[in-house]
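Researcher: Next sequence.
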Amino acid sequence: MGCVARWFMERRGLATGIAFIGGGFGGVLFPMMIRSLLLQVGWGWSIRILGFVLLVLCAISAAFCRSRVPPRKGAATTWRETLPDPRIFMDGTGAMAVTTAGLLLTDMAYFIPITYVPSYYIDRQRLSHEEALTGPAAFAYQLLAILNAASCVGRYAAGDLADRFGRYNTMIVSLFLCT
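Model: Next structure:
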């Protein structure tokens, strides 16, 4: 995702938002794929197939990911020199560090519960373990896909708003709305 920001000077937030839509799209496809595979090949091979799909997708993205800015020392640049400078969090006011910590906690508060949406639905419907992948339990996995599809709209909107009102301002408002 960091590669996208370096290629766009105008409408950078929108470009990043569109790139993040891929995460929401994967959140729609992968739960449905896993549910279907669990019925056909079982847990072990479902996870292996998911891993192979992700391996191929990551290899394709790594092949197309290019830096717009050349390395500082040319070909002699080591991997340690590519790490971000920790001084970016010490801007004098601590605002960046506090916002980053708030974003981390918000992401944890968002992503961890979403992981358990299917299990929660199955428990609340009092479905047996045998019914956990078929029949009425199929909606549990569709709920996860619905949540991720809705997040695609938010990812696009957040990127567009970041261009209009500033990235930092948009982050502060979104963190406030998430609390």
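Model: The first helix runs from residue 2 to 7. The chain has six helices and no strands.
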